[in-house]
């Protein structure tokens, strides 16, 4: 098996061997998807003096282009400002649990031999996250901090090429809200094809309804509503359009 500075890793250690599902999947996808970003969350036993999160790109080198780890940290802080961090390429004196022997990280960073050789540089597209148990992994609410922060860091691409100036015929469409991410208001726009009962609701990531904009009969056309999220906390929300039994949903991000 691939070796660390002290001993060989076990064959079952997915993050440190090359004949594993993690490595083979990463290898295949990296060839199919240009500039793929690999995010690998782990849990660790927090020792005295450890932060809540240890984050690295698999090296202590500063990534070129976008620093996704710093963006992810900022989004986590916006959700819980009590969290503490160490980022390997920022806190250079920190060397514990920074994934320098992670074979997926070595692969994404361009190592010629991920089993045994550190890469010569970093792509910045491998994100290794060690999370303490308390405040991050000890409840569903705390799990959502990381989930929401990831979605805020890597939002879905907005819908492009959609024409909303229909002249003779409407369709059923829920357009991407704008702006997205938003703080605290955003515009939600949709179109319906036939007269009928329409509902437009907003749900949080747990599926709880947090807002209702429409609950009435409407005629065919394009409609636009302003949604105010000032009473909500930062995170991922879903707007759901229900018209004539057709259900369309879209994700939006509140980033305070």
Structure keywords:
4 helices; Immunoglobulin-like; 11 strands; 17% helix; 256 residues; alpha+beta; 4-stranded mixed beta sheet; 4-stranded antiparallel beta sheet; elongated; 2 domains
Question: Could you walk me through the main structural features you see in this protein, from its secondary elements to its overall organization?
Answer:
The protein contains 4 helices and 11 strands; from the N terminus they run H-E-E-H-E-H-E-H-E-E-E-E-E-E-E. It has 256 residues and is of the alpha+beta class. It has 2 domains: 140 residues, no CATH class; 82 residues, Macroglobulin (MG2) domain (Immunoglobulin-like), CATH 2.60.40. The strands form 3 sheets. The chain has a 4-stranded mixed β-sheet with strand order 1-4-2-3. Helix 2 links the parallel strand 2 and strand 3. Helix 2 crosses helix 4. The relative contact order is 0.14.
> What is the average per-residue confidence, as pLDDT, rounded to a whole number?
89
Percent in helix: 10-25%
What's the number of helices? Answer: 4
Quaternary status = single chain
Spatial ordering of strands, largest sheet: 1-4-2-3
What is the CA-atom radius of gyration, in angstroms? 22 Å
Number of discrete domains:
2
What is the chain-wise order of helices and strands?
HEEHEHEHEEEEEEE
| Approximate strand percentage | 25-35%
Return the structural class: alpha+beta
Q: What can be said about the biggest beta sheet?
A: 4 strands, mixed
From the N-terminal CA to the C-terminal CA, the straight-line distance is: 46 Å
> Which residue ranges are poorly predicted, with pLDDT under 50 across at least 5 consecutive positions?
158-168
């Amino acid at each position: 098996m691939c070796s660390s500075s002290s001993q060989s890793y076990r064959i079952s250690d997915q993050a440190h061997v090359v004949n594993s599902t993690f490595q083979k999947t990463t290898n295949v996808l990296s060839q199919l998807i240009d500039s793929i970003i690999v995010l690998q969350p782990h849990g660790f036993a927090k020792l005295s003096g450890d932060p809540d999160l240890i984050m690295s790109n698999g090296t202590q080198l500063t990534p070129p282009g976008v620093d996704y780890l710093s963006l992810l940290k900022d989004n986590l802080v916006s959700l819980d400002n009590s969290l503490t961090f160490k980022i390997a390429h920022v806190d250079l004196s920190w060397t514990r649990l920074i994934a320098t022997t992670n074979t997926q990280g070595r692969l994404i960073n361009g190592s010629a031999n991920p089993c045994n050789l550190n890469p010569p540089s970093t792509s910045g597209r491998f994100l290794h996250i060690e999370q303490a148990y308390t405040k991050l992994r000890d409840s569903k609410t705390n799990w959502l901090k990381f989930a929401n922060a990831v979605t805020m860091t890597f939002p879905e691409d907005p819908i492009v090429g959609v024409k909303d100036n229909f002249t003779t015929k409407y369709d059923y469409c829920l357009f991407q809200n704008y702006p997205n991410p938003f703080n605290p208001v955003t515009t939600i726009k949709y179109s319906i094809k036939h007269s009928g009962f329409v509902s437009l609701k907003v749900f949080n990531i747990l599926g709880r309804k947090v807002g209702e904009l429409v609950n009435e009969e409407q005629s065919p056309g394009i409609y636009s509503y302003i949604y105010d999220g000032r009473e909500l906390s930062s995170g991922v929300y879903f707007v759901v359009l229900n018209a004539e039994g057709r259900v369309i949903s879209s994700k939006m991000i509140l980033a305070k």
